Automatic annotation (TrEMBL):
<dbReference type="GO" id="GO:0046872">
    <property type="term" value="F:metal ion binding"/>
</dbReference>
<keyword id="KW-0540">Nuclease</keyword>
<dbReference type="GO" id="GO:0016787">
    <property type="term" value="F:hydrolase activity"/>
</dbReference>
<dbReference type="GO" id="GO:0043571">
    <property type="term" value="P:maintenance of CRISPR repeat elements"/>
</dbReference>
<keyword id="KW-0460">Magnesium</keyword>
<comment type="similarity">
    <text>Belongs to the CRISPR-associated endoribonuclease Cas2 protein family.</text>
</comment>
<dbReference type="InterPro" id="IPR021127">
    <property type="entry name" value="CRISPR_associated_Cas2"/>
</dbReference>
<dbReference type="InterPro" id="IPR019199">
    <property type="entry name" value="Virulence_VapD/CRISPR_Cas2"/>
</dbReference>
<keyword id="KW-0255">Endonuclease</keyword>
<comment type="function">
    <text>CRISPR (clustered regularly interspaced short palindromic repeat), is an adaptive immune system that provides protection against mobile genetic elements (viruses, transposable elements and conjugative plasmids). CRISPR clusters contain sequences complementary to antecedent mobile elements and target invading nucleic acids. CRISPR clusters are transcribed and processed into CRISPR RNA (crRNA). Functions as a ssRNA-specific endoribonuclease. Involved in the integration of spacer DNA into the CRISPR cassette.</text>
</comment>
<protein>
    <recommendedName>
        <fullName>CRISPR-associated endoribonuclease Cas2</fullName>
        <ecNumber>3.1.-.-</ecNumber>
    </recommendedName>
</protein>
<keyword id="KW-0051">Antiviral defense</keyword>
<dbReference type="Pfam" id="PF09827">
    <property type="entry name" value="CRISPR_Cas2"/>
</dbReference>
<keyword id="KW-0479">Metal-binding</keyword>
<dbReference type="GO" id="GO:0051607">
    <property type="term" value="P:defense response to virus"/>
</dbReference>
<feature type="binding site">
    <location>
        <position position="8"/>
    </location>
    <ligand>
        <name>Mg(2+)</name>
    </ligand>
</feature>
<dbReference type="GO" id="GO:0004521">
    <property type="term" value="F:RNA endonuclease activity"/>
</dbReference>
Amino acid sequence: MYVILVYDAGIKRDPKILKTCRQYLNWVQNSVFEGEITEGKLRQLTQRLRDIVNPAEDYILIYTIPTPRYASRMALGTPKVSEGDIL
């Protein structure tokens, strides 16, 4: 499956979330990740994130798409990573 993950976290937890997400997905821009991931790896990622976040202060959205073939993407501006690394 294809996943887009977006988060907003406190300053102390932000680097931990960033490091964890980079182990599973491609970094697109500040607090945004995307990429192919198995259901098992997604469960692993979400469990690790649950151990890091403070639900009262942090917010994570995970969008799942069965395959990137059904996704459409429009980008404006200069990406932080090369376009070949993202959808």
